Amino acid sequence: MSYLTLSITLIFVIIPLVLSKTLNLGLERDTIVATVRSIIQLLIVGYLLQYVFAADNFIYIVLMILLMIAAATQNARRKGASIKGITWKLVVTFIFVEVLTQGILLGLQITPATPQYIIPISGMVIGNSMVLGILFLNRFTSEIETHQDETELVLSLGGTPKQAIHNQLIASIKASTIPTIESQKTIGLVQLPGMMSGQIIAGADPVQAVQFQLLILFLLLTTAVVTSIMLGFLSYPTLFNDRMQLLRFEKED
After folding, report:
1. What are phi and psi of 187, to 5 degrees?
2. How do the domains of the chain map onto residue ranges?
3. What is the pLDDT of residues 80-113, one digit of tens each?
4. Residue 240 in 3-state DSSP?
5. What is the DSSP letter of 17?
6. CA quadruple 46, 52, 53, 59: dihedral positive or negative?
7. CB within 8 Å of 139: residues ≥ 6 apart
8. 228 Cβ neighbours under 8 A, 6+ residues apart
């Protein structure tokens, strides 16, 4: 695809801009900002990956992954600003998920230990973990705020912090993982996944594209569950003080 052809595809940006303006939705600024940022960021990453792939240096791979984790943490931490130490909790969670998934892939020789495989897969894993982290934190803080009186009642009756927060924690974990699980139920029937479609367009054998897509789907399922559970169990203890009293807070917007 040439840059001229790519510029023509901006019609798909103009359409929502016109609709937003016509219906007074107020989405024009955000749409333009999102479009400009996506163009700049992806072009920079594209040229950067060309260099990293050509160098084939492990240090560059690690630096790219750390950059992904830093960006994901910065984006997700805002949803959990009310939780003490949320930044390091997110960092630990993202690193753990990355090490777990790449450890299995490389350890069992499922994928080659090359930048062309490690970096794109890491991007999908960390990106999905970030989205799940945001979903979890948003739901968890809402649950805590809504059920503060219930939590304090359990504590007053002699319950431990874990017992007092159990229902809210489980509900938040389930709610954050439901989109991933439900989307996998209709995959291939309602939609063809992006990676699979991209491989087919690039000329890959459809069956091989399906096999690779299944690998990604299974990875993302593990990412979703591990992220929510780990982030939940790292977060809930900091909601209580040394006297096992719930710290009241307002959910961040």
Report:
1. -65, 135
2. 1-55, 57-239
3. 777 888 899 999 999 999 999 999 999 999 888 8
4. strand
5. H
6. negative
7. 171, 172, 175, 176
8. 132, 133, 135, 136, 172, 173, 176, 177
Residue 39 has pLDDT above 60, yes or no: yes
Q: What is the DSSP string of 97-161?
A: HHHHHHHHHHHTTSS-SSHHHHHHHHHHHHHHHHHHHHHHHHHHHHHHHHTHHHHHHHHHTT--H
Burial of 230 (0-12, 13-18, 19+ CB in 10 A): buried
Cα–Cα distance, 38 to 13 (Å, whole number): 12
| SS3 (DSSP) at 210 | helix
pLDDT digits (tens, 9 = 90+) for 172-217: 899 888 888 887 777 766 566 666 666 666 667 777 777 888 888 8
Position 89: which residue type? Answer: K
Cα dihedral sign, 50-99-221-85 = negative
Kindly give, in sequence order, each residue whose CB lies less than 8 Å from that of residue 217, ignoring residues fewer than 6 positions away. Answer: 184, 187, 193
d(CA 135, CA 113): 31
Taking alpha carbons only, the member of 186, 184, 214, 210 closest to residue 197 is 210
